[in-house]
Amino acid sequence: MDIILRLADEYVLDRAWAHLLPVSAFTTASSNAAGLYNASSHVSSVASHSSAWSQLISYIPHPPLPDELLTSPVVASETIASAWPRDYLPRQIISLFVLTLVGIHALYFIFASLSYKFIFNHDMMKHPRFLKNQIKLEIQSSLAAFPLMILLTLPWFVAEVRGHTRLYDDVSEYGWGYFFLSIFLFLAFTDYCIYWIHRWEHHPICYKWLHKPHHKWIIPTPYASHAFHPLDGYAQSVPYHLFIHIFPLHRKLYLALFVFVNFWTILIHDSDMITGHPLETVINGPAHHTLHHMYFTVNYGQYFTWADRMGKSYRQPAAELDPLLEVKAAESKKTKAALGKEQ
């Protein structure tokens, strides 16, 4: 998130914060002579807040301002900057919350909509266990969960942007060998952690209130990918944030993997049962996760099948388990019933 925050600050947020909390509103001189500044032809648009607004925001806490801004009305009024600099913790927290909220909505609707249009088999919506208005309910559940999930995740993001992780910028620091190895290490570590978090969420103590809301979607669509209880979604995201506190990872690679994680989460919720591909026994793909939604206690893994095999919860996808067969059976039954009425 530090890359995203840095770019957002440079192109959008610096100006936004300068407009909301301008330096001029916090200087003694500007507070005493706000009318003079507003009348001046040299006052910038950022510093042209009304006296009432300047008085109001002048009570907001801020870090110490440079002496030249405190003593010079002209300098203060012509400075297009915020009293909250980039490294000020409250600004970082608010900026990260807004950026993450916008980002997760964008990722969710873009990837889920593309998957729904081009990958998801719409015949699945005829399945007997597909709920009425399910897509609308999945989207509503996701949107309701996002704000709290983001609030819970903010401490991890703040730690990242303030440099308390093992992210690095120069590939030569660890070499290209480790760069590519860290991809597998990231996927393996997070997959194994998520396997156990996911499996523990199926324990009777917490399943009903914590994880069952996600299993409401027996035949999920890509829009169900983020339709979690907020604590559930957060718990399964912890390994991704924990990894960079334990293992070195290239900063840009981490961002790419973070996007991939969201894409993969959407992809495995397309309810397909495509079987027979060469990596089927290794990769925990959409068919495996479809079985998880149908049978609940199998295929808890996220990317690979090895944790399920070790935990004896693996179930091999098979053509005869395809939920589309139930759709065809239901359609056949309706057709026979209709023909019977005509006769």
Automatic annotation (TrEMBL):
Query: Which terms in the GO cellular component ontology are assigned?
Result: membrane
The protein's UniProt keywords, in alphabetical order, are: Membrane, Transmembrane, Transmembrane helix
In which domain of life is the source organism classified? Eukaryota
- Which sequence ranges are marked TM in the entry? 93-116, 137-158, 178-198
Q: Where in the cell is it found?
A: Membrane
Biological process annotations from GO = lipid biosynthetic process
UniProt entry tagged with the keyword Membrane? yes
Q: What is this protein called?
A: Fatty acid hydroxylase domain-containing protein
